[in-house]
Each structure stands twice: as structure tokens, then as C-alpha cells.
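Protocol step 4 of 5: obtain the predicted structure for the target chain.
Materials: sequence only (see below). No template structures provided, no constraints applied. The aim of this step is simply to have a reference model before the mutagenesis design in step 5. Sequence pasted as it appears in the construct record:
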Amino acid sequence: MADSLVIYYSRKGQNYFSGSIRSVSKGNTEYAAEYIASAVGADIFEVDTVRPYSEDYTECTEEAKREKKDSARPELKEYIPDVSQYRDVFVCGPCWWGTFPMAVFSQLDRLDLDGKKLIPVMTHEGSGLGSCESDLKRLYPGAIVGEGLAIRGGEAQSSERMITQWAKRAVGKD
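Step 4 output (C-alpha cells):
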């Protein structure tokens, strides 16, 4: 039985890479989430919204901006009902307006995270971890927020070794 869980949202379709927009069939965060799960033997759960975000990158950023402004919690296709079996929860997503996509919080808000170690992982193209660590501390005060990892989105796919080593350290399996 796994004692770690990876919860992630990853954008497929148009993505921003070092100044240009290109289409991808697998999002940057998905690579990182899979590397983490493999490294520490974690279960993995993909956050997926009922109403998909726009395929158009610019339009999607505007949707994300509105959701953040409204503190929206978009409906998900599926929710994890319980995390009592897990000690560590990796929370992974792209940096949208300085934090996780609101859909990630849609899942986290439904969970009893007291005493859980939340480990933020964010893909970005220059924003680093943004405010995700402080957001997790503010929204889930009973949780322990571990040191996060910021990964340039365009480098996620080729960063398996670095992500694997970091993930093992994050849960004491190094």
C-alpha cells in the first residue's frame, strides 16, 4: 500500500514554452507527476474538470485569471474521497497567475489534510513556485507544507533524474 499520493493537473494542447506557444499531447506537469509517482511508489490522481478549459492558450489564461479572481472551484469529473492512508501528498500543477489552477483546490478542499505533508510541485516559464506554498499553508492550516519544487515547463520532460532525486529526498527515501 502506497504512503504517498500525487495529485496533479496538467494542461494538454497549446502551452507556452520560452516565449512561444506550441501544442502538446501531454502536459509538462504530467511528466513531473509521473516521474514523482514512479520514484517514490506513489498512487497518482489526475484532476480533470467537467468543463474543459479552452484549447486556445490565451483564452485559457483569461479563464484561469477569472477563476482565481473569483476563488472559483470548478467541478471535477472525479474526486478522491479520502486520503487517510497517505502520509505525503504531492500537489502538482502549472503556475497559473501565481498559484495552482483553481481546479486543484477543488480537489484539495474536499479532503481532510490535517497532519498530511503537502509537497508543492509547479511547472512554470519564469514564475517559480509563485504563492503556492503560502496558499497551501493558508487554505489548509492543519497540513504540513514541505519544501516545493519549481520546474521550468519546457524542461520537465527531460528532467526525470533531477525530479526523481528531489522526490525521494522530499519523502525521506533517498
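Step 4 remarks: The longest helix spans residues 28-40. The CA atoms of residues 4 and 88 lie 5 Å apart.
Proceed to step 5.
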